[in-house]
């Protein structure tokens, strides 16, 4: 994982693929707590991660883009990024993928976050010879909450936030058994830093992170306190089906993209178009308490979304009809969350951090959001509702995986 140059390119590529943000499994089931295969129990949505937004005020994550100009080739990059790699003659599959709708992931590939300094001492153990990239090994012991554990069904992500020391650790393939957490990879970040990946240089070899783009897991994460406040004052992290292979822009420092050269590079910043924001806000006003909660992004992309454009644009009676034809009371709690996310996508935008089957945002996962967030609140939106802004200079990642066969 952390053995970099002069490692052969094939091995480095395999390691990068293993760090894909929505994909790879472990050699065996990830175990959390003393019960093998048990998922961590989500806390109530009052759980907060720190009192302030992560990273410095000057960080790209905390800069507004509401007045920035769109890139001239934005439509082409967006179109290519919406297509998942596949056979070139499979036109129907590509067309279907192009219409996949935006989802907010609150489980699975969304990371849990825990504050260091609460709870009891927990031993942290590297399961291989070297587990660290970029310096800053995880201490051998930290005081963590009793419920601090990873999701066994995915990549075992964990974020550990030490506000007193101004440090954040990302863990990959973490497993908890009793009072021991073992892991296979870690990255340390400054909570007050720039939230950007480390660029390769003569003195610093290629340094991956848990994200395919090399950025912190905490960057762009939606937190419950932000939804309760109705305000998100930072850019969001977004994954897209087909980011460009072999190239990236800052704040990324690596890429696991498999798309064509003309696609969106990881690190690119997107902004929700004004007309799409208006449409999404109208949809938020029609959310119902009777809508089922969605925990799988595939659910919102099957058949009709829970909030359909036909219901919104057709002028159905908002007092009796939801997008799927059911009845129920308007849900002002979910509407407030949806509006906060839409405003953030307009004011701060979203930065491409990884690849995923559908355009995906991320919220802290160790939270029981209740009606605060189901994940399908922005089901009106597709990737084509965004535009590329503030692209910056493109850089090459020589050890990245090659473009997939299309």
From TrEMBL:
<feature type="region of interest" description="Disordered">
    <location>
        <begin position="25"/>
        <end position="49"/>
    </location>
</feature>
<keyword id="KW-0732">Signal</keyword>
<feature type="signal peptide">
    <location>
        <begin position="1"/>
        <end position="20"/>
    </location>
</feature>
<feature type="region of interest" description="Disordered">
    <location>
        <begin position="307"/>
        <end position="329"/>
    </location>
</feature>
<protein>
    <recommendedName>
        <fullName>Lipoprotein</fullName>
    </recommendedName>
</protein>
<feature type="compositionally biased region" description="Low complexity">
    <location>
        <begin position="35"/>
        <end position="47"/>
    </location>
</feature>
